[in-house]
């Protein structure tokens, strides 16, 4: 995403920036490669007669689709993402004023470097595995997929880093709040931490709103891939006639399923942990306060804090369309199962019709 740090604490996006121009030029060049490979993949689809083989060939076409939505889900939301990144600077400043300490993210730079290199290596390894295991996927075709798989991996990694940052901020805030309340349980201290917590909760919600378009399309992409890959592996297993042996094709489809399921799990689990982290530490401290030693104003502030937590739940929502947590993971499994049953039913019907003929 072509966003730049224009000054300390301020992230901006401009269509005329060097980063944006570079992104557009690179995208245009890769579009040529994607179209060339895409034509060959579509030609394979047109010449395939078997239903199962047709399903396998669709996977490689689907993996080309994310390239064409980059301007829509990447550059199109860059302004909102820049505002979200800038709001982190305002939160850190307020955090310093309230707690008297700077918000620290231990080993953040090292983590970013390791994750970035890991995403690139995973993309290369994943594509080489598919090229080796699945038929009709020559090695040179992977040239059109490297930047796409790397982008998908980096989106997942970006979500992990953002969720981890919010979780770290919530734990640090809860620790500072607990220390100050143990020293002096007064109304002004509770009040300033209440506003700081509301600021953090708003930051968590703006994470989902800023990236809603990006991760909505990513979820759809993952769901479709899992359905097709699981069906392909199941169809191969059912068609075994001479005992059970895992063919290269099945292994390739299983690799695809594991890859997509891992992405979906990271996406849902990180949001779930961040959501729990924002409320858990503060609530624990509020409930541990000895109300017998607190004055009336402090008690009122505690009640207001608890009401604020209940009325403003810390959730990650993609602009209200879906709440990202572990329930999304279980719901996705149910939806994928339904579509798999439909495809399996369709396969058995085709096999029965072929046998009768």
Automatic annotation (TrEMBL):
Gene Ontology CC entries for this record: plasma membrane
GO BP term, pick one: sensory perception of taste
Keyword Lipoprotein: no
Record localization: Cell membrane
Residue ranges crossing the lipid bilayer per the database entry: 21-38, 54-78, 111-133, 139-161, 215-234, 328-346
Alphabetic keyword roster: Cell membrane, Membrane, Receptor, Transducer, Transmembrane, Transmembrane helix
Membrane topology, as annotated: Multi-pass membrane protein
Function text: Gustatory receptor which mediates acceptance or avoidance behavior, depending on its substrates.
Similarity annotation: Belongs to the insect chemoreceptor superfamily. Gustatory receptor (GR) family.
Name the record gives this protein: Gustatory receptor
The species this protein was found in: Glossina fuscipes
């Amino acid at each position: 995403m072509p966003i730049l740090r224009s000054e300390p604490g301020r992230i901006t996006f401009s269509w005329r920036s060097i980063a944006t121009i570079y992104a557009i030029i690179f995208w245009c060049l890769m579009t040529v490669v994607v179209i060339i490979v895409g034509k060959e993949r579509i030609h394979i689809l047109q010449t395939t007669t078997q239903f199962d083989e047709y399903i396998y060939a669709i996977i490689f076409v689907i993996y080309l689709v994310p390239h064409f939505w980059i301007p829509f889900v990447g550059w199109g939301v860059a302004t909102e993402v820049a505002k979200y990144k800038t709001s982190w600077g305002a939160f850190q400043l307020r955090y310093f004023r309230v707690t008297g300490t700077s918000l620290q993210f231990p080993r953040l730079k090292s983590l970013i470097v390791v994750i970035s290199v890991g995403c690139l290596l995973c993309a290369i390894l994943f594509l080489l595995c598919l090229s080796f295991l699945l038929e009709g996927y020559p090695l040179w075709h992977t040239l059109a997929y490297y930047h796409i798989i790397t982008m998908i991996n980096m989106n997942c990694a970006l979500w992990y880093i953002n969720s981890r940052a919010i979780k770290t901020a919530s734990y640090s805030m809860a620790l500072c709040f607990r220390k100050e309340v143990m020293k002096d349980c007064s109304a002004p201290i509770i009040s300033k931490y209440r506003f700081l917590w509301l600021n953090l909760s708003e930051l968590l919600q703006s994470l989902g709103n800023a990236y809603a378009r990006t991760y909505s399309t990513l979820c759809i992409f993952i769901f479709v891939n899992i359905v097709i890959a699981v069906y392909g592996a199941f169809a191969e297993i059912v068609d075994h006639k001479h005992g059970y042996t895992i063919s290269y094709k099945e292994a390739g489809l299983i690799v695809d399923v594991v890859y997509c399921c891992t992405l979906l799990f990271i996406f849902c689990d990180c949001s779930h942990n961040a959501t729990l982290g924002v409320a858990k530490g503060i609530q624990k401290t509020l409930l541990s306060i000895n109300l017998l030693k607190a004055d009336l104003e402090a008690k009122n502030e505690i009640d207001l804090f608890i009401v604020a937590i209940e009325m403003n739940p810390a959730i990650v929502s993609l602009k209200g369309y879906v709440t990202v947590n572990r329930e999304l993971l279980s719901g996705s499994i149910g939806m994928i199962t339904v579509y798999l049953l439909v495809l399996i039913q369709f396969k058995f019907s085709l096999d029965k019709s072929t046998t009768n003929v």
